[in-house]
Amino acid sequence: MSQTQSPRPTKFISHLLGAWTIAVMVFLYLPIVLLFVYSFNSSSQAIRWQSFTVAWYGRLWHDHELVDGLINSLIIAAFTTGISLMLGTAAAWLLYRYQFPGRRLIDALLLIPLIIPEVVMGVSLLALFVVMRWDVGFATTIVAHVTFCFPFVMVGVRARLEGLDPSLEEAAMDLGATPLVAFTRVIVPYLRPAIISGGLLAFALSMDELIVTSFTASPESYTLPIRIYGRARLGLDPSLNAISALLIAFTTLLVLAAERLRRLHTGRAVATAGSLS
Amino acid sequence: MNDQQLADRHFARRSRQVSRRSFNAGILAPVVGAALLPLGCRRSIRSGSASEPLNLLAWSEYVPPAVIDGFTKETGIKVSYATYSSNEEMLSKLLAGGTKYDLIQPSEYTVEALVRQSKLAPLNFDRIPNLANIAPDMLHLPYDPEQKYSVPYMSGTVGIVVNTHKVAKPVRGYRGVFRPEHRGRIVVVDDPREMVSWAMNTLGLNINEVTPQALERVKPVLANWIPLIQAFNSDSPKTPLIDGDVDLGVVFSGDAAICYQQDRKFQYVLPEEGAHRFIDNLCVPTGAPHQATAEQFINYILRPDVSRLISDKFPYTNPNLAARKLLTADQLANPASYPPTAGKLETFRDIGAMSSEVDKMVTDLRVKYGR
Amino acid sequence: MTPMPTATGLTTAGRPPGVAGWALMAPLATWLGLFVAAPLVILLAYSFCQRDALGQVVPAFSTHNYARVFDVVYLRILGSSIFYAGLTTILCGIVGYPVAYYMGRAPPRRQSRLLMLVMIPFWASFLIRTYAWMTILKENGLLNGLLYAARIIPDVLSGPMHLMYTPFAVVLGLVYSYLPFMILPIYGSVERLDGSLIEAAADLGAGPLRTFGRVILPLTWPGIAAGAMLVFVPSIGMFAVTDLMGGNRVLMVGNVIQNQFQGAGRDKPFGAALGVTLMALFAVSYLLAARSRRDRTR
User: Which of C55, C77, C164 comes nearest B88 by C-beta?
Assistant: First the structure.
């Protein structure tokens, strides 16, 4: 009975799922598209369309708050990504490779930034900086960002390490490589996908973070999300439409480029494999 | 199986998807990083140089960007600007440590509290000759009788804005605002001391005699009012009014004046029960790293042409008589900025340790009765 | 963490670290100690202090911050925060699961297209996406404008929908912000699902509902759990969305804590006590979940 009946409900369900997916995509994209369209609206009132203009984009250039915020965000995200990659990879390697006292403790401490609500992390770091008498600013913000980013890097790298064939490293050592050379020539290339994705994740997390940053940044180091939040609290603002549209366009380009590069890469790999055979 | 592995598994999945998509795009990451490193260096070199920025901690929507840019243009000194939306929030940020501010904008009662705790630096008035522009009746007030620590910035009142197109019945005081039929149509400033003072005025109590007994009487009044309120907003209470998200507000007079400028349907009412008249000041906290620059900035702000820019953008009552001469007749006729009739107005005095009780009571009430 | 035996049976995890290992360990341990453990210890210490009139922390031992946290009022705010965060998580699950499933079972080309479509909002800032909804939901926003244009409501002045500053707006904002965080991990586990298992279930006569309940759901459970964690944890401490979409009125515990440290509440020790309580709640529920999982696998 199942042989004759099963395809039909399955097909029906699949259509239903497809329709639902389309609906959810519309839900996800409609606000973004509207934001994009209305960033070209000459009226500062959102409710009606007046005429097409790019004036809001022109104004962004002179908006020091937002421009400085963007520069600060990029600086902080760049440093955060670099430090997180080093710390995260080191942590993953240590936990993968060695047995040592206090291992469980380190494991637990690494888990905390992943499960702690951001607001608690923010106030606890602020409390630390106050007790240590560190002026908040770029350094404290980078410290905070690294603290919640590098465990994500660690988790990704560690997952990849668990698939590592130990004989790979041994083979390299047998061929006369020192442990360091074996590490840099064998292990690091193997970990590259995890390191790259971890780096991207750290960069994105840092660029997007608002809650922790609101406790650890000073006016001088205010990031773009803090500035956008401050503006949004004052009400609708066409400059926000414009900068949001730019950021979304940038994100989209990045995702598209990633996809294109991946396809190119697989294409080349296939071609190489073909020429070898 | 254990926790770590589970967590690993979650994130491994997530990062795997990420990695598949972005494996090669990841090549971009180092490129971007390399492009940014010089920026980081330039930044750190610059912040170490002689012209360090002035750290201003000011009310949001109070110091126009044109004023700050003008100062930077004239002196080459950058101003970094953090905002707050209540005196309590300012104290939180100032006293949290972490950031050293050069200039703050406390209201009268907060100046009094800060002076009491020796948190303000005496100003060097030789650097501030433009103080002469300030109306004499705005100086030597009880919160700073010797005029040692503060320079008046703007003053104003906290009163009622009514959208007369939506609210037909005339509103004369707090009682008229906080009525059940206005549920969900009210915005108020997010400020515990203010809210308590409205209730005290309504009860006929002296707003500066905040005692535990008085608070006991205030409590049921606020418990009735809080559920009616749609939004607490001290940053820009005018926004929900102008946008039509609410019809009534108990807001700062500067916001009310902007509403009135935008549309005459907005009416400003000084509550008949009595209202708070505030005087916001420029002060330098003790330990400020750049006191001389701060004083330079204060003197700049007091210049008529600069002070006028502030009034253009944020139409509070300008205590700067020289600047007032530059204002248009329209600006001076705005009933929210320059009220034609003096209502029953009073400034706040520092209430010392009772302020903790006020904060606590309002926080508790908002958590309990806020919808 | 138990050492993982590797495929060859050669366990490399058992080795004690040499000089290089300890050199790697030092920065890591310092970082974790200084920036993860120490802040929490200081927060704990704060929570037993008191405040002065200006809002400074006074080191005078007191437990009354905890007495206040365990007052009915604040237990309710914790409860309602858990409720809103839980509702957000469940709604994300209900909305996101079918999408993730459809994506995971789609042919590769469509799969990668759909994945890209989810990735874009995943990478785009939640703040921008919340702001997008503000422009829609405001009284003079796009939704009311559309309804007006379509003559569903007579004019802008009378009878627009009041949507901003409501719990509805807050939950909508949270679901919208975190939906991609639910879809991606579920998609990951669906994609790994062995299709032959589903076919086998169908061959054995199981209807689609039964197959889903008995085969698909248990196998994709890790993805759901991961998604739930990625949605629930940030939702419960969020104060920006509740502030922007809820008019700072729909209070969640995140708003109360933030208000004590940076807002008008200025009672840092009390905020610290709330933070410690929240943290303890998380730790306990996490340990319970871990234990029940261990029991099940045993």
Answer: C55
